[in-house]
Specification:
8-stranded mixed sheet, 7 helices, Rossmann fold, alpha/beta, 6-stranded mixed sheet, single chain
Length: 244
Amino acid sequence: MAERQILATSGGMCLTGRGGVFQWRLGGLIRHALRLSGKRQPRLCFVNTASGDNDPGLRGSYAAAAGFEVFAHHLQLFPMPNVDDIADYLGSMDVIWVGGGSVANLLALWHLHGVDEAMRQAWEAGVVLAGVSAGSICWHVGGTTDSFGPELRTITNGLALLPYGNGVHYDSEEQRRPLVQRLVATRALPRTFTTDDGTGLHYIGTDLAEAVSELPGRSAWRVEAEGADGVVESRLPTRLLDDE
């Protein structure tokens, strides 16, 4: 049976340039996902459903991959799917990177088009599933989201490939930490793993293998219920990725 891997992050893309000319590049977390595939020139599929498959995002994804030893592809659902067989297409990839945006809209559209089941099949076949923000929460039971407006709300209809909650942007958005803790305390979310910006969670099967970061001084966290209405938050050992 192929090894099932997920890299769920709050990072991945980096902006580089000078003199007012900038472009997106593959950051350390995406490059780590590529290494996890074990392929010298992996097939990398960008999935930007959460941002509405907007053209600038798609162009930026391909520009980011330029200069790296990858074969870049993409799956889009707007205005219609760009491939005939989504499951076959995703199953042919080595790494799938899901971008950020609205996780609620992403999950609704994935269910409508069968992408949710296609992702499960790809994961079980050994394709590395990875992503940022919405592309992190989606693999879990659920988490906190701004999909419905600036006031964060809860989402609990994730793909549940991983039987945990997930919190993203844990150090940079002030509503995230208290809401995650409240949701875990009330059992609205199960045990929850969270990431500071620049940090990712590498799962093998459904077990957390390690936390990694593309930025120094950032951490991942575990939040668990304790007693009737309490929580325990624990900082996880977080390995700083080599800048390759």
